[in-house]
Write a structure and sequence with these properties.
The chain has one domain: Jelly Rolls (Sandwich). The longest helix has 18 residues. A hairpin with a 5-residue loop joins strand 1 and strand 2. It is α+β, with helices and mostly antiparallel strands. Helix 1 packs antiparallel against helix 4. It is elongated, with a radius of gyration of 31 Å. Strands 1, 2, 3, 4, 6, 7, 8, 9, 11, 14 and 15 form an 11-stranded mixed beta sheet that branches. The protein has a two-stranded antiparallel ribbon with strand order 5-10. A two-stranded antiparallel sheet has the order 12-13. The chain contains 4 helices and 15 strands.
């Protein structure tokens, strides 16, 4: 009987000992998909297989992607419309800091004519408005367009580092994979006018070329609020909310039951006559 009483007390002490979740958290962090955002990485990178597949995620490395996407056409219009949807889908809830700055960084090269504001050269918007268009980089939150950067034409045959930023507005800060998966869209029209003038032996014009660097050279940095990583928010609660107890008073009830069990066992012990 004394052994049973001791066992009951040990159960009580065990139930009253706080559970340490450090090792569990460490294990879970080791299982994180590097393509998902984390407290130490909130930069989205764009990728392509060099053909018609485009995607993005939060890892700065992707062996399925080429380093530079390129397209060319000697005579005619290169119509660029690339949609870099995050894949795999965002598996966390992210809350951006209201007033925080989203920063874009992209490297673009082209040859040909992309100027859609004048009638110089072969690209004449007043006559053929579908022939050319400036570079546009648009950010979508799910199906919602939240920002568009338009870059003025720069000289043909030169690479340009495109940098832009915008600020997160109140009411537009929460992103998730269900309704607000990140997407970066890149559009541009470049016209080539290269022609061979055979049999005279001289050529004229410029072929159209478009190139965009991928991975670390094509990225979008998000101002994610550090409180986004808290378990309460990830489970659907408010940002910065205090976690609720799993079962209020549960430990106390279990402890009381164990103590009562020990008392009951002691009461059933036969008294030893003196």
């Amino acid at each position: 009987m004394r052994g049973k009483a001791i066992f009951a007390v040990m159960v009580t002490l065990f139930m009253m000992t706080p559970v340490q979740a450090g090792e569990v958290s460490a294990f879970q962090s080791q299982q994180e998909d590097p393509r998902q955002p984390s407290a130490n990485n909130t930069t989205l990178y764009i990728y392509s297989d060099g053909m018609s597949n485009y995607w993005s995620h939060f890892s700065n490395n992707d062996t399925d992607s080429v380093e530079v996407y390129s397209e060319d056409k000697e005579n005619g219009v290169i119509d660029i419309k690339q949609r870099y949807l995050m894949s795999p889908t965002l598996d966390k809830r992210l809350s951006m800091e209201v007033g925080g700055e989203v920063r874009g960084n992209f490297n673009i090269y082209y040859e040909g004519d992309s100027d859609s504001t004048d009638n110089d050269g072969p690209c004449q918007p007043s006559q053929t408005p579908n022939d050319c268009d400036w570079l546009n980089i648009t950010i979508f939150k799910g199906q919602t367009k939240v920002f568009q950067h338009t870059e003025n034409p720069w000289p043909s045959g030169q690479s340009k580092n495109i940098q832009f930023s915008y600020f997160i507005e109140a009411g537009n800060e929460t992103w998730d994979g269900r309704d607000a998966n990140p997407l970066v869209e890149v559009t541009m029209k470049v016209k080539g006018d290269y022609q061979e003038t055979f049999p005279f032996g001289s050529n004229g014009g410029t072929p159209g070329v478009f190139e965009i660097e991928l991975g670390e050279e094509g990225s979008l940095l998000f101002p994610v609020d550090p409180a986004s990583w808290e378990e309460t928010f990830q489970e659907g609660g408010e940002l910065g909310a205090t976690p609720a107890e799993d079962t209020p008073g549960f430990t106390l009830v279990v402890a009381s039951a164990a103590i009562a069990m020990a008392a009951f066992i002691n009461q059933r012990r036969p008294e030893v006559e003196e």
